[in-house]
């Protein structure tokens, strides 16, 4: 399990190693034919800041080589905001006074139909809060069953499950699982996740092993940028990715770099990542792992998304609502995070085309599940 | 550095005493059996050599230069009345450790001049284990001699002679590198715990994990060059080449050996060198035959190591991936350390890993072609993904090919034809050894970048300004 592997890596030593990277290390990393973790650390280090243009060029070249000039489109569907956790940064925190909803099967179906009217989406991301009592595995199974006829590819972003539960869901059409570790800094993890199942670091960080063991086709990873030193945190995630690739080599992987904005809510981020840094991280990840799917959500602005689309990102959401029932049932409920890109899917598609990127709605077929 | 010198004491004989201190973390054992005949020493030395290998410990023998090769020891310790050091060096060559006893600064300087690898300086105090006693040095003697000695040499020096746990702190301040002990460890109630205490006091709490060693099947390999035994002009030439290569594992085809005859000439030549045997199944055509052959090999060679070679095609000797996977699965279950010879197929490597293989041995080019890393791109992928050691096998025709494979990050290489058919196989073996080491060092050092031009304008990232 990765929690044991993680013990080999010292947080402070990693931070220091990143800070010690030099321009020569960055140049070597950009040119490396098979970059390793040291190269990755160089690419995200402050020493790489002057190399942003060279990194962008390399990242674009590798992205085109592997993915062509395409963008895979997906859309999230929040089906419940009920949550037993009290994560200090999250809108779904159980102490937040807000209406909690758990969509019924009929409501989920209405949402599916509404999404299909919005655009020809085939990749659906089903999202829940973490409340196994009201939205447990049976509920997810039912939701997948309801969504199946409307979408060819179903991914979930829910509480960590047992391996046999992941496996059970793959029989109901589950293709991928997204789970954000939020932070790999074990000693501070509990500070941000004081209660509920999510307060258990090991259970969460080892969820990825369980997904791999269950044979999930695609695993999505991420750290929440704003909690700890992002350079160290993403380095730990890169190590996690290397570990997963070696152990669960039949699985595809994706990463996402959700960042907190200072103005977003009641929780003020400990670190703020600039657009330049987010671009640097995106390029670094592409250079480090040319096959990884890099996903950019509507948290980011239209300008950023239009540009990063040609430089390293390979999947994007559009027209997203981050509240349960937001497409049809409850257009007014409280969202999990603020959306920066309010464009319709059609507008996003038109902008991407202008940037020379072909939008791909369908890149999977349910017969393969 | 903590050297343990074997002796019999209380319930412990040489072997059980050594085991106790090895379990305590000591990684350096000297087999000392004064007044014993060579045969008696061999009888104890064989199992002790194996034990040291299991613990990745250095194993040296007192006095008997002639037994170093026989027992596969790492070296010898010479007392003042033993064979002259220079003569021992001539016999053992540069690769073996030679330690020398010294009582005075002059002794030490003479040992340095004669090519010693370390010096045992003593006695610290009066002791009962050494019979021929020299004047006791004491702490002051050490201070005086060491401060002089360190002006001209940084050779490791171990203090010896009746040293107890209480002495360690003081003695380490004199400039010695470590201590050699015998009685102090075995007379303790718990020798393993006392060993740990000694190591902590000397300042070496754990064995050195920083050294770059390769582990396959629980065995540690200092050399990353493995050598084959086929195609040599004579067994003597083969033995010389193997020795020159510094290898710690050789593969030999079962079909070549008369397994019913322990005196088989080829086998005797290989055994004499005291290195890990890797019998190979060359000649079998499917998994069932391979399993049978492996069982015979285990019996005959007394090793769990098996190089799985299943090539039904007699012309190019290309391995059968389906049968190899089947056989690996079966043999791993039976406790074999399986090293399968395979196509450079990354997916097959992952499947073999799941089947319990100890390493993978992808071919660089068809066997015997000397073409070098024809499969380079695939081997790169295998190395990137592998959780088990990757040993590049077959087709490496020149030392530069071995270096290239090691630079890519291969864990080891296996070479046979290129050495065997060279004009001077021993010289070629040495060249491969150097190339393998050079490639490894380059890999660890991190190869430099092909430089790129910087550009002033930033058309791609101006949206961030």
Strand content of chain B: 15-25%
> How many β-strand stretches of chain B?
18
Quick check: average pLDDT of chain A? Answer: 92
Widest sheet: strand ordering of chain A: 1-2-3-4-5-6-7-8
- Unreliable stretches covering 5 or more consecutive residues of chain B: 205-210
Taken from the alpha-carbon principal axes, the silhouette of chain B is: globular
**How many helical stretches of chain B?**
18
Write out the CATH superfamily name of the largest domain in chain B. Answer: Aldolase class I
- What low-confidence regions of chain A span 5 or more consecutive residues with pLDDT below 50? none
Using only C-alpha atoms, the radius of gyration of chain A works out to 19 Å
Share of helix of chain B, binned = 40-55%
Full CATH superfamily name of chain A: Aldolase class I
Biggest sheet statistics of chain B: 8 strands, parallel, barrel
Overall domain count of chain A: 1
- N/C terminus separation of chain B: 58 Å
Summarize the structure.
The complex is a heterodimer of chains A (369) and B (465). With 369 residues, chain A is α/β, with parallel strands linked by helices.
How is the secondary structure organized here?
The complex is a heterodimer of chains A (369) and B (465).
Chain A lengths: L1 H5 L4 H9 L3 H9 L5 H8 L7 H16 L2 E11 L24 H14 L4 E6 L8 H11 L5 E5 L5 H8 L3 E5 L7 H7 L8 H5 L1 H7 L4 E5 L7 H18 L4 E5 L18 H14 L4 E4 L5 H7 L6 E3 L27 H10 L3 E3 L9
Parallel strand pairs in A: 1-2, 1-8, 1-9, 2-3, 3-4, 4-5, 5-6, 6-7, 7-8
Helix pairs in contact in A: 3-4, 4-12, 4-13, 5-13, 6-7, 8-11
Chain B lengths: L1 E4 L8 H10 L4 E4 L6 H17 L3 E5 L3 H6 L3 E4 L6 H8 L4 E6 L2 H10 L3 E4 L16 H12 L7 E4 L7 H5 L5 E4 L1 H4 L4 H12 L11 E3 L2 E3 L3 E4 L6 H11 L3 E5 L11 H8 L3 E5 L6 H15 L3 E4 L12 H13 L3 E6 L3 H10 L5 E2 L13 H10 L5 E3 L5 H10 L3 E4 L1 H4 L4 H21 L20
Parallel strand pairs in B: 1-2, 1-8, 2-3, 3-4, 4-5, 5-6, 6-7, 7-8, 11-12, 11-18, 12-13, 14-15, 15-16, 17-18
Antiparallel strand pairs in B: 9-10
């Amino acid at each position: 399990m990765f929690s044991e592997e993680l013990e080999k890596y010292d947080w402070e030593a990693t931070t220091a190693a990143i800070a010690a990277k030099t321009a020569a290390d960055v140049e070597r990393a950009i040119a490396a034919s098979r970059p390793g973790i040291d190269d990755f650390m160089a690419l995200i280090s402050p020493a790489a800041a002057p190399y942003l243009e060279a990194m962008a060029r390399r990242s674009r070249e590798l992205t085109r080589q592997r993915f062509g000039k395409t963008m895979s489109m997906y859309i999230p569907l929040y089906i419940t905001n009920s949550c037993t956790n009290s994560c200090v940064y999250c809108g779904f925190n159980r102490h937040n006074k807000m209406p909690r909803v758990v969509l019924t099967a009929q409501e989920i179906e209405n949402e599916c139909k509404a999404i299909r009217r919005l655009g020809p989406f085939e990749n659906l991301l089903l999202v829940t809060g973490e409340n196994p009592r009201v939205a447990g595995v049976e509920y997810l199974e039912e939701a997948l069953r309801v969504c199946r006829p409307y979408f060819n590819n179903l991914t979930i972003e829910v509480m960590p499950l047992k391996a046999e539960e992941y496996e059970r869901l793959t029989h109901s059409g589950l293709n991928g699982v997204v789970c954000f570790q939020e932070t790999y800094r074990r000693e501070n993890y509990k500070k941000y996740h004081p209660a509920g199942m999510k307060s258990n670091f090991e259970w969460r960080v080892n969820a990825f092993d369980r997904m791999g063991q269950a044979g999930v086709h695609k695993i999505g990873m991420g750290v929440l940028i704003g909690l700890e030193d992002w350079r160290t945190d993403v380095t730990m995630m890169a190590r996690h990715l290397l570990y997963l690739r070696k152990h669960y080599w039949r699985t595809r992987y994706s990463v996402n770099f959700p960042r907190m904005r200072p103005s977003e809510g009641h929780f003020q981020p400990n670190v703020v990542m600039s657009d330049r840094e987010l671009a640097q991280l995106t390029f670094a990840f592409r250079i480090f792992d040319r096959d990884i799917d890099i996903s950019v959500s509507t948290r980011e602005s239209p300008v950023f998304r239009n540009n990063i689309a040609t430089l390293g990102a390979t999947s994007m959401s559009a027209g997203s609502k981050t509240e349960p029932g937001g497409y049809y049932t409850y257009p007014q409920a409280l969202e999990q995070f603020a959306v920066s890109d309010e464009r319709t899917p059609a507008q996003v598609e038109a902008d991407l085309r202008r940037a020379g990127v072909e939008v791909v709605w369908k890149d999977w077929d349910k017969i393969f599940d | 550095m903590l050297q343990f010198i074997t002796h019999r004491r209380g319930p412990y004989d040489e072997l059980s005493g050594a085991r106790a201190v090895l379990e305590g973390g000591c990684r350096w054992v000297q087999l000392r059996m004064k007044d014993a005949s060579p045969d008696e020493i061999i009888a104890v030395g064989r199992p002790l050599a194996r034990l040291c290998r299991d613990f990745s410990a250095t194993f040296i023998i007192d006095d008997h230069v002639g037994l170093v090769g026989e027992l596969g020891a790492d070296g010898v310790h010479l007392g003042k009345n033993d064979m002259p050091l220079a003569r021992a060096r001539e016999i053992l060559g540069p690769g073996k450790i030679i330690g020398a006893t010294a009582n005075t600064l002059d002794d030490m300087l003479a040992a340095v001049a004669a090519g010693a690898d370390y010096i045992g300086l003593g006695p610290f105090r009066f002791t009962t284990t050494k019979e021929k006693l020299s004047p006791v040095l004491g702490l002051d003697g050490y201070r005086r001699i060491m401060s002089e000695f360190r002006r001209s040499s940084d050779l490791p020096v171990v203090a010896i002679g009746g040293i107890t746990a209480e002495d360690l702190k003081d003695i380490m301040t004199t400039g010695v590198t470590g201590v050699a002990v015998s009685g102090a460890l075995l007379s303790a109630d718990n020798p393993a715990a006392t060993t740990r205490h000694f190591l902590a006091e000397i300042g070496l709490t754990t064995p050195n994990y920083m050294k770059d060693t390769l582990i396959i099947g629980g065995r540690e390999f200092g050399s990353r060059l493995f050598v084959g035994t086929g195609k040599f002009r004579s067994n003597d030439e083969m033995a010389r080449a193997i020795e020159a290569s510094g290898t710690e594992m050789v593969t030999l085809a079962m079909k070549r050996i008369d397994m019913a005859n322990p005196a088989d000439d080829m086998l005797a030549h290989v055994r004499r060198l005291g290195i890990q045997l890797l019998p190979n199944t060359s000649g079998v055509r499917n998994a069932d035959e391979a399993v049978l052959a492996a069982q015979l090999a285990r019996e005959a060679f007394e090793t769990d190591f098996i190089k799985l070679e299943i090539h039904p095609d007699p012309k190019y000797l290309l391995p059968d991936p389906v049968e190899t996977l089947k056989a690996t699965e079966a043999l791993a279950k039976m406790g074999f350390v399986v090293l399968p010879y395979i196509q450079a197929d990354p997916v097959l490597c992952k499947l073999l890993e799941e089947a319990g293989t100890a390493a993978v041995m992808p071919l660089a080019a068809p066997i015997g072609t000397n073409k070098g890393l024809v499969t380079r791109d695939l081997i790169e992928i295998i190395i990137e993904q592998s959780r088990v050691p990757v040993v590049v096998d077959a087709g490496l025709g020149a030392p530069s090919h071995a270096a290239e494979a090691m630079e890519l990050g291969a864990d080891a290489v296996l070479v046979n034809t290129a050495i065997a058919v060279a004009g001077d196989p021993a010289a070629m073996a040495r060249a491969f050894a150097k190339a393998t080491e050079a490639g490894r060092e380059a890999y660890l050092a991190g190869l430099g970048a092909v430089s790129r031009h910087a550009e002033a304008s930033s058309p791609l990232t101006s949206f961030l300004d």
